[in-house]
Write a structure and sequence with these properties.
Length: 343
């Protein structure tokens, strides 16, 4: 029993000794300034504050640092009666003077500008080594798109605090253009189209040669190959004998599409759908309406001309039957062409 107790006490002592460095380690303090606005941007542009916020989030995620807030810094400056306009403190000498006053371990700061073509972001970190303050790391990134600001801020933060290398190819516009040219693009979103319908079964085709109209669908993709959609289309035409009788089909559809992206802008596809049809036949003296049920299949190709804009066309075959006394077959073929826009 006594032997077991001594073994346990010895194990506890070893764990305690090993843990002492971790227990005694203090988090480093870091102050992150809003990035100053440079040439090409309005003074009120929030991009400098956005960069600061993204860097702050990254520092918190990386761990090991205590972030000093602006309010805390202003309070320290007030207490020490430092004669300095904090908002106008942007150059290296001023930032170093500020760092001496607030006694923080690190300060991250920098500037952002725009030359009508690209953003230019420069980030720096000051490191306190005893009583000496030195510029530890500095890095500049240039990129065109506003949507890369967050990516750039995260990359800069990781480089400044840990020296993590930045993949510069992500900021090479020529390289990215090649990547985007072969990137798999999927036609999806709201589709508006023209439709030409030809009846294929008697007696429907005996009285009507063709019906024309249009439709509206919405496509939602799951990955690169599968999409689901729902929509409505409307076609109408006049009889081929007197021209005084008009028929219209109002079709409501829901279905799926299978396609494969090619060359970054071509998307051949096939699809099937279930349909509910409202059939209306009318003349100047009479009218009749019926409901029909069926399905259709189609095959075609989409051409993606921009990230969100697609032109497409396809050929389809439908099978449908009305619920009238004769169970009239209103099957036929269709040609469609339209435009799709992804919001």
């Amino acid at each position: 029993m006594r032997k077991d107790y001594l073994i346990f006490a010895f194990q506890f002592f070893i764990v305690f000794i090993i843990s002492l460095p971790l227990l005694s380690a203090e988090q480093k303090s870091i102050y992150i300034r809003e990035f100053s606005i440079g040439q090409g941007l309005k003074y009120s542009d929030p991009v400098g504050n956005r960069i600061k916020d993204y860097i702050s989030e990254t520092v918190v995620d990386e761990g090991g640092y205590t972030i000093i807030s602006d309010d805390e810094v202003k309070e320290i400056i007030k207490q020490e009666e430092l004669k300095m306009a904090m908002d106008s403190c942007t150059d290296d000498a001023c930032i170093k003077k500020l760092m001496k006053s607030i006694q923080t371990d690190f300060v991250i700061y920098g500037d952002v500008s725009h030359d009508k073509k690209s953003y230019h972001v420069t980030a720096k970190i000051l490191d306190r080594a005893g009583n000496t303050i030195k510029l530890s790391r500095i890095k500049s990134l240039t990129f065109k798109d506003d949507d890369k600001i967050k990516m750039a801020s995260v990359d800069l933060a990781r480089y400044l605090i840990s020296g993590k290398a930045i993949d510069m190819e992500r900021y090479d516009d020529a390289y990215q253009a090649v990547i985007e040219a072969y990137e798999k693009k999927i036609p999806a979103g709201l589709s508006i189209y023209y439709m030409y319908f030809t009846p294929s079964e008697t007696p429907f085709k005996s009285y009507y040669d063709s019906l024309q109209g249009g439709g509206l669908d919405y496509y939602y993709n799951f990955g690169y190959y599968i999409s689901v959609f729902g929509g409505v289309n409307y076609v109408q035409g006049s009889d081929n004998m007197s021209g005084k009788v008009t028929v219209s089909l109002n079709n409501y559809s829901i279905g799926g599409r299978l396609g494969y992206p090619l060359f970054g802008f071509v998307y051949p596809y096939i699809g099937i759908a279930g349909t509910v049809t409202w059939f209306n036949e009318r003349s100047s003296s009479d009218s009749a309406s019926f409901t029909g049920y069926g399905g259709n299949g189609f095959a075609g190709c989409a051409f993606i001309v921009w990230r969100t804009l697609t032109f497409w066309g396809d050929y389809g075959m439908s099978m449908a039957q009305l619920d009238d006394e004769e169970s009239t077959d209103i099957s036929g073929t269709s040609i469609r062409g339209g435009v799709m826009y992804k919001f």
